[in-house]
Amino acid sequence: MHLPFSRRNCTWGVNVPLVSFYYFFTIESEKNDILQQILKQNTLETYRKITEEPSKYDHLEQMDVHTILKGINNEDKVVAEMVEKSIPQIERFVMALEERFGRGGRLFYIGAGTSGRLGILDASEIPPTYGMPHDRVIGLIAGGDTAIRKAVENAEDDISQAWKDICAFNPTPEDAVLGIAASGTTPYVIGGIKKARENGLLTAGLTNNPQSPLAQLAEMPIEVNVGPEFVTGSTRMKSGTSQKMVLNMISTALMIRIGRVQGNKMVNMQLNNNKLIDRGVRFLMEELHIDYQKAYELLLKYGSVHNALENALK
């Protein structure tokens, strides 16, 4: 069920039940104390967080450096395997994104802490790598830009803030929101996904715990079960690594599908430093079988690898 979209829906409190877990949410659940009671009841008593289970390693403080590093590396080896198992879920989301991007839609990442920072990192790389406007893939973090470098106390516990953050960009039903939360219970993310779905935006949830509230709430769950962390509960480790991999896959596949890559080259990259200019020149040398000077002149004349190739091949 979706509400007709309007700017007035950029407020908190419209209640549209989406899954049985969230029948609890009403206008009163904007209050964080009530939300916390709900989450406590439904997560601590009935919801098992694999990411919070004890590490299979113990007495870490007694290990030498080599043993610590070997243990971390052994745990990291399972991440790619678990991401691979999630490819069907990732594929479904990318295909839906491709359709919306073709109609001018945007992608929002929302998260708190490590998850929020990873979303911002991925979003910030899209303009220089693929020449896209900064407002097509947008990363939002609980606590705002300050939280990128320094934790903002209690920011992730505000269930209404993510939707307010999204509303600053005048969202439309063509947009999509990917909530990122290792636990699958972060209130900032849960609230943002709930409101986005109510207002007709495409919603997905990237989490590291199966059957989490986030996975139940989002239309398109992406669940990467990497298991307990090397340091118990430290989800910046395997969980964060898996999230980075999935975000890379989503944004890269999307950019390829909408034509921002030619062959295997970043032909739309922004040429804003000497390294990238040199890379662009060498792309042209390889594609057109010309020397460095000629390629440099073409790049200077047309301003991008894409335009240079297009005009040179006419």
From TrEMBL:
EC top class, as a word: lyase
Highest taxon in the source lineage: Bacteria
Entries under Gene3D superfamilies matching the protein: Glucose-6-phosphate isomerase like protein, domain 1 (3.40.50.10490)
SIS domain mapped to chain residues: 97-260
Entry annotated with the keyword Lyase: yes
Single Gene Ontology MF annotation: carbohydrate derivative binding
CDD domains: SIS_Etherase
Keyword annotations from UniProtKB, A to Z: Carbohydrate metabolism, Lyase
One of the protein's GO biological processes: amino sugar catabolic process
Entry annotated with the keyword Coiled coil: no
InterPro entries: Etherase_MurQ, Glucokinase_regulatory_CS, MURQ/GCKR, SIS_dom, SIS_dom_sf
EC number(s) stated in the UniProt entry for this protein: 4.2.1.126
PANTHER family, per the entry: GLUCOKINASE REGULATORY PROTEIN
Protein name: N-acetylmuramic acid 6-phosphate etherase
Organism per entry: Capnocytophaga canimorsus
